[in-house]
């Protein structure tokens, strides 16, 4: 099931739960206006977070070619709900095909596996598609080549202090300009969050090699 339709089905569950909670609170004698206000605020917060976090940019084909770390390609594939298996070439081809298939839109809905499961269980008939206006997608990481930015002080991946010159983190090897530019987009922030978590877990549990006597 497509993430957009899955979110539609999942949102129906949320609205129903909200309505049941309202009915129970009113039945217990709580003030009607107060209960309705809280329920409305809860729904507004839910839909705001949903839109801001899971309605993300489609990474253009030119940007996909700039990713050199296969782990970045795996993370991006997982965000878009694609298979993260295979070699670097397989991952890149899969992402390129995804970007080409969504070439008429700058944004796309993504969803975690839990939401996709609920969506599949409560699958709704597909709605008739409205012809979308083709949008001109600018590169998400083109800003890397823009005018000089303020000096990057902290690596967005491992939180290590960046040196005054150079664009590569000495601790984790991350391209600082690339990842800072990515952090200005929704899909980039999702990528950075997942990649930073993996790098920190790896450094936390990394066992030093034993020296031979």
Protein architecture, described:
With 213 residues, the chain is mainly α. The protein has a domain at 1-122. Helix content is 53%, strand content 3%. The chain has 8 helices and 2 strands; from the N terminus they run ααβαααβααα. It has helices at residues 3-27, 32-54, 61-64, 70-79, 88-101, 113-121, 176-182, 186-205; strands spanning 55-57, 107-109. Strands 1-2 form a two-stranded antiparallel ribbon. α4 (70-79) packs parallel to α5. The longest helix is centred in the first third of the chain and has 25 residues, at 3-27. It is globular, with a radius of gyration of 22 Å. Mean pLDDT is 78; it is low at 129-136 and 205-213.
What's the layout of helices and strands?
Elements: H1 3-27, H2 32-54, E1 55-57, H3 61-64, H4 70-79, H5 88-101, E2 107-109, H6 113-121, H7 176-182, H8 186-205
Antiparallel strand pairs: 1-2
Helix pairs in contact: 1-2, 1-6, 4-5, 4-8
Quick synopsis:
The protein is 53% helix and 3% strand. With 213 residues, the protein is mainly α. The protein has a domain at 1-122.
How many helices?
8
User: What is the CA–CA distance across the termini?
Assistant: 58 Å
Integer-rounded radius of gyration: 22 Å
Q: Averaged pLDDT, please?
A: 78
Structural class: mainly alpha
**Strand neighbour order, sheet with most strands:** 1-2
Order of helices and strands: HHEHHHEHHH
Helix content: 40-55%
| Beta content | under 5%
Low-confidence stretches: 129-136, 205-213
- Record field, number of beta strands: 2
Major sheet attributes: 2 strands, antiparallel
* Overall morphology: globular
